[in-house]
Amino acid sequence: TWKWVVGPMFLYLCERLVRFWRSQQKVVITKVVIHPFKTIELQMMKKGFKMEVGQYIFVKCPAVSKLEWHPFTLTSAPEEDYFSIHVRIVGDWTEGLFNACGCDKQEFQEAWKLPKIAVDGPFGTASEDVFSYETVMLVGAGIGVTPFASVLKSVWYKYCHDATNLKLKKIYFYWLCRDTHAFEWFADLLQSLEAQMQERNNAEFLSYNIYLTGWDETQATHFVVHHEEEKDVITGLKQKTLYGRPNWENEFKTIAGRHPGSRIGVFLCGPEGLADTLNKQSISNSEADPRGVHFIFNKENF
After folding, report:
1. What angle do helix axes 146-162 and 184-199 make, rounded to 10 degrees?
2. Can you tell me the distance from the alpha carbon of 133 to that of 298, in angstroms, rounded to the nearest whole number?
3. Which helix (H) or strand (E) holds 84?
């Protein structure tokens, strides 16, 4: 038995040593931003830190717990001079981090008073392949929308600085959530991208649809009354919020009709049930002819 145990145990010990070494590297918190609904954004810097879009890191805050590591998706773009995560306050550890950063106080918090943070990573995900396609479908469900903050920011930086060499030409973005208020920081990002795309007369580059899946009769009535207004009353975007769930078969057929003969990347960050649905639609809407349209499905789960 020991011959089978020694190898994996050696690799495990090596991984723990690497993580311990990484945890000793200095991480500087440059800014803490408080967003609505008890969500905080930590902007950090670390010597030698390099990231790609959609990656994630493990974070430890010794002031809260000396042993606990928690994974968080990076919401910054590689082009920015810092890396950031968004933390929703939903448990004891996140509550402790919230208080340690001084977010429970009204006065301005000095940088030297911020807690020490240990970071391990970044680690890769399927989202890194976004720039390998000319057309992509990005589907985020609930908290699964966070990887696409990094993707959309990076796309915008690349588009502004060297649009001619950017292979990616069209993004179809779908955001499924029960309550957009929980992710108002992401709606702000979409508003900024929407305004900038219109300034450059290329509003067609990014097509997005926001679906509220946890709607009730009161919300539906409010939606009908304000549907004709220029901007959506919930998100402040020109694209109106939709209620219920998408008809994925229609969405895939429509996109396939618009991009014949293309390889279309489908990227999901969400639950397994939705992954099964999108995988089946990707297969059924791909043509047998190598010159036809093909949907390539990629997923990651929280």
Report:
1. 20
2. 12
3. strand 83-88
Strand-strand pairing, 135-141 and 118-123: unpaired
Q: How confident is the model at residue 233 (pLDDT cuts 50, 70, 90)?
A: very low
Could you count the other beta carbons within 10 Å of the beta carbon of residue 105?
9
pLDDT digits (tens, 9 = 90+) for 101-127: 887 777 776 777 788 888 887 887 777
CATH topology of domain 24-123: Elongation Factor Tu (Ef-tu); domain 3 (2.40.30)
Instruction: Residue 237: name the closest of 206, 173, 202, 192 by CA.
Output: 192
The model's pLDDT over 50-100, given as tens digits with 9 standing for 90+, comes to: 888 888 889 988 888 888 889 888 888 888 888 888 888 888 888 888 888
With contact defined as beta carbons under 8 Å apart, do 140 and 174 qualify?
A: yes
For 69, list phi and psi in degrees, rounded to 5. -115, 135
* Strand pairing class (83-88; 170-177): unpaired
Residues 252, 256, 259, 265, CA torsion sign: positive
pLDDT digits (tens, 9 = 90+) for 213-231: 765 545 555 555 444 555 5
Higher pLDDT, 70 or 131: 70
Q: Where in the chain is the domain with CATH 3.40.50.80?
A: 127-300
128's tokens? 């890194």
Every domain of the chain with CATH number 2.40.30.10 lies at 24-123
Would you say domain 127-300 falls under CATH 3.60.160.10? no
Cα end-to-end distance, the chain, whole Å = 35
